[in-house]
Amino acid sequence: MLGDDTWGGLFPGRFNRAFLYPSFNVMDLHTVDNGVISHLDEELARDDWDIIIAHFLGVDHCGHRYGPDHPEMELKLLQMNEMIKNVMKNIEDDTLLLVLGDHGMTRTGDHGGDSVDEITAALFAYSHSLNIPLPLQHQSVPFPVAQVDLIPTLALALGVPIPYSNLGRVIEDLLITVNHTFEEAAHHQVFSLELNVHQVANYLEEYRKHGSEFPDDMWQRLEFLSEKISRDLHELPLDKQKQVFVEYLTLAKLMCEEVWAKFSMTGMTSGLLLMVAVITLAYLVLSSEVMADDEMCIVNRIFYITLFVNALFVFSFYISVVILGLVAFLVLAIFLYFHRSRFSNIFAKIDLLEIIPLFIALSVCLGTFSNSYVVVENYVTAFLLVSVVTVQVFSSFMKQQKKKSVYGLPSKLVKWASNYWGLMSISSLLVVLVCVRISSWFWKCREEQPWCIPGHVHTTLAGLPQVMRNWRYFTSVFSLILLTWLPRRWLMMCGNLNGSKLGVVLVRKVPVICSILVASHWALQAVPSLQGSPLRMYVVLPPLLTYFFAVFLMALLFFVPLLIYEVPPRKDDIGPVTENPYNCIPQLYHSLKAKYSTDNPKRQSIPIVYGLATAVSAPLVGTLIVLLIVIVLLAGDGVSPGILLLVGTTVACLSAQAASTWMNADSLGDVMKPSWSSVCTWFMLSLHFFYSTGHHATFPSLHWSAAFVGFEGQWGSSNVIPAILVGFNTFSAQIIFAFSLPLIVLCPLSFGVVFPKLRNSRLEGEDTRQGEFLFVEDRKIAASSLLFTSVLYIILHAIKVLFSAASAFILRRHLMVWKIFAPHFIFDAVSFIVTSFFVPLGVLFTLRIIDVLDMFGVYLRHKYS
Predict the structure, then answer these.
(1) Which among 279, 304, 302 has a CA at the least distance from the CA of 289?
(2) CB neighbours (10 Å) of residue 750?
(3) pLDDT, tens digit, for every residue of 202-221?
(4) Does pTM surpass 0.85?
(5) What is the pLDDT of residues 137-163, one digit of tens each?
(6) Alpha-carbon separation of residue 294 from 175, 288, 297, 301 (angstroms)
(7) How far apart are CA 227 and CA 698, in angstroms?
(8) In the 8-state DSSP scheme, what is residue 776?
(9) Lateral strand order in the sheet of 8-11
(10) Neighbours of 464 (CB within 10 A)
């Protein structure tokens, strides 16, 4: 093919790089063409070539820049016309000249769609020895041929076999020369068509053997023609034989187009409608939880909307998509009209400053309609993440100033930045800025990013120069140590790693063991002498042990999630406790508080429990430690510092959220309810994590090396384990942030306990020192907050995949649909599936922890009553 041009020249001759790839500017109309023309006569004069390809770009650039009716286009076409005349004079008698384009253009100079002007391009054929029939030359409408027809024609003209997977029909008139008599020409045409038919028939038969299906009616017609060809075709006149061959090749191409080149408009439209309905369903669940007190209201809405979604799917097979779309949106409009008060109420409670981060997050979805945006989505995502955090920080400042009477914005800002909340917010924002900027070092280059210079972070240790190996190895190990030590330090500071219970001991020891195993695996991989050695088989042992310990710890934390330590007090009476087990923990807490006061004579006999204030988030953090170690193992040692930066970015975002929450909270209910902006930040973090671990929404960017971490063929022919490893590596961002989503709800309370100065003085009347223990006290708020966060987070991912699907649907005829839009939609769809699975998993794990805390309260009640 000649590339992205409107006209080009194809000459039998030698492939010459000198004029195929000269340097040029995108908007330059002449540099490439003049370079090709300057070499063309010299190459034609040589006798050592069989094929020459001359690639002209000026007409294409002129069409894009000025359109087909501009005077510049006339000049370019005149230049091409003179070039073709010159080539026609200089070629030998046995040379075939073909001038063709790979596409047409619209009246505005564009292409990539499916209009006639765009998919029709000229084909000019000339040779001194050609004998093209005169009626064909005088037709008012040119003889139509498909571009795939060039393949068998050129193959037979050059005397080489037709390619195996060709579906084109030979242009038989281009194979007739002036030396052929009429009878010889007819025999030659029929023989060429017969070769073409046998090649296509062999390909279709082999294709069907691999389980592929064709339309029955068309396949039966092809079989009938095949039997006719093999049985009595040679008894027919030559013109009848030619007619049968042409009919077979035409039908074969139409049949394959029916299977391969057609879009199911009904399926695509109904799928988009179903996605809209499901997103509406999720939002209704969200609004019901916020606004409705009756739990049956939520159940009823889920039932009716689910029934509506399934009805859409069933009717999509029987009703026109236009009618179906109108009915679907009419039903949704009627439903929203009768429930408009609920929607107006929920949006009335959202501050304008909360809408801005939501708008920024949704702008990611709008960008999917641009191929230029998709190519640089990693850059845009990083910028928008910083924008969301910046808006969140300064919106908290603006909310606080509404309650004060300090005049002058500079003085307000200085005073705000000098207090504890402002200092923590500004510091968190600076950390996010630095970490996001440095994390760009760990991006991987797309094929469409020629400006991108690939680094060495994704190169294995064994592939690095010797001088760089030690530096990279010890930097990676140091990052792995920090990645393990910092979360453990947090848990120790919160009092969750005291005692000798099995869960506590394993959370203390297993991450350290896994880190040592990962560092050992990296060291063994870098030893060149192990390549081909029998000791090579032991390289897989550290990853396998890491997988085992990680799975074992996560399973144990699900069944025994409490990371607390109870110091047995002296036997003493703690007062009467109510018989209601759901109220015993708050009553026990207040009793312990009273008995622990300095004027209590029984102070030494009260029970002491470490880690209760962070008992809900501690198992989540313990699980995330081993998950991150496995991600580092699969991503490779070079990405270890990048993942450490991403963890720092996430912690900084949580710190900014906690400061903003406590700064503007008027009640504990405000602290326990997450904001829209915090969920939007989490959504942007998941996208940023995806790109900053070296991934892109393209198949060439998949880290296939992850399939062999701990696996080198010992599982036989099964691809299940390698597929799981590659999938876990590719969608690790979605897994981590979906599973850890409850941290958005928990972090303000846990930060308020660890950093007491963070707590708002307006809430001194309420006991804010209970931390996450408040969710045990009020299960309804806990369930409501988790449901709100989960549904909103899934809605954001659903909207993103909806826009990706819509862009692939609308731009299905775009030049870059299979290169950019279709892979982007596939990755977004799989990301949404992974997110939809791990978000409920993380919420169920959190609810499991709260249930066990309830049981622990019952245990304390019986023990100290």
Answers:
(1) 302
(2) 23
(3) 998 888 887 667 778 888 88
(4) no
(5) 444 555 678 888 888 988 888 888 999
(6) 80, 9, 5, 12
(7) 45
(8) H
(9) 52-54, 8-11, 97-100, 123-126
(10) 17
